[in-house]
Amino acid sequence: MVKKKDLKAEIIRAALKAFAKSDYQKVSTNQIVEEAKVSKGLLFHYFKSKMSLYTYLYEMAWAVVHRDIFTDFPFENRDVFERLRLMMLRKTKSFHNHQTLSAFLKQVHLSKMPEVVKLRVQTYQTFQQKTYRRLFEKIDTTLFRDDLYIDEIYKVVTLTLNKLAHECEKQHGDKDNAELLHILEDELNHYTVFFKHYFYG
Hints:
Layout: H1 4-21, H2 29-36, H3 40-46, H4 50-70, H5 80-97, H6 99-110, H7 114-135, H8 150-172, H9 177-199
C-alpha cells in the first residue's frame, strides 16, 4: 500500500514535470493526476486548486535554491564580495542540479498571466529579501573606503553579478554543469577583484 505522503510526493513530481514543459493555462489537472496515477479527488485533498498547487511548487522551488545556497555557507568570511561571488555560483549550480525545477522556474518567469505574474513578484521578492538579509548579515564594513555609500554599492554590485550570471547562463547554457560553472567562476573572480580594488580602502 502506497503511503499518503508518497502519494502527495507523486502529485508534486507529476505537476512539476507538467508545468516545466508548458505554461500554467495549458496544463490540466487531468494531465497531472494521470501522470501521478492518483484520483483527482486526492489532488484536491492536498491542494485546493490548480493555482494552489502551482503556488506550492513555486515557493518550494525557491526554498530548494535557498537551501542549496546556504547549506554549510562560510559565514565566517565577512567579505561581502566573496559572499556574493559564492552565492551566485551556488545559485547557478542549484539550477543545473535540478533541471526540472529550473525549467519550471523559467516557465513561471515567462508567463504573462496576471495571477502568475502576481505570484512571481511576491514570491521572488520574498526569496530575494530572505537571501540578501542572510548574505549581508555581519558584513565587515570596515573594509570599505570611508567616502562611499555602502547600501548603494550593495545594490549596484548585486545587480551587476545577477546580470553577469544571467548572461553566462544564456550564452553557455548548452555546456555541461562543470564547464558552465568554471566559466562563471572565472567571470565572478574577475569582478570580485575589480570591486575590491575600487570600493575597499
